[in-house]
Amino acid sequence: METAGDTKNPKVLVIGCFHGDEPQGKYLIDEYLKDNKNTKLLFIPCLNEYGVRNNVRTNENGVDLNRNFPTGNWELTERNEFFGGEFPESEKETKFVISVVEKYNPKIILTLHAPFKVVNYDGDAEALAEEISQIINYPVEGNIGYPTPGSFGTWAGVERNIPTITLELDEEVEVESLKESVFKIFKLLENK
After folding, report:
1. Second label for 53, Cα 20 to 30 Å away, from 20, 23, 45, 151?
2. 10 Å Cβ neighbour count for 147?
3. Residue 24 pLDDT more than 90?
4. What predicted TM-score, i.e. pTM, was given to this entire model?
């Protein structure tokens, strides 16, 4: 886990690979950074390195990082691919993200996921979600459609009032074909 991009005064944080079986984010961020060294965005290209190496959703402890945040709705669940840990913020990756948010105080956060082809938002981010939808042609959804106790979106977007977008990318297309749209989204965010 590391950051890349603007580490001086970033207004926008972009996070890839909460889930290791959703590697599109790392690829797209790495590709963007090749030609955009002076970006105004702060990136965490790959939050879940273990999951990506092993093509699994969870981290090395079997925890779904997107259910491990210390939210009002966190709950101890059964051990499956959505297991939120033995307690909130139990995982080093969760602690890392929280420390990055606290250190840089971003005004907007974008996380890259797959496979639902929607622009999901938490907090005061509906207008931004609509702008992103116009670029990538995915519908906007305020609710992903199932419970997400301990999610990053709840922690950052709802409980900390940081407009947070979860961009669910299409996993059925070649990731290369997503570059044009996602890079336009990154450029949009650079100007926020």
Report:
1. 151
2. 11
3. yes
4. 0.97
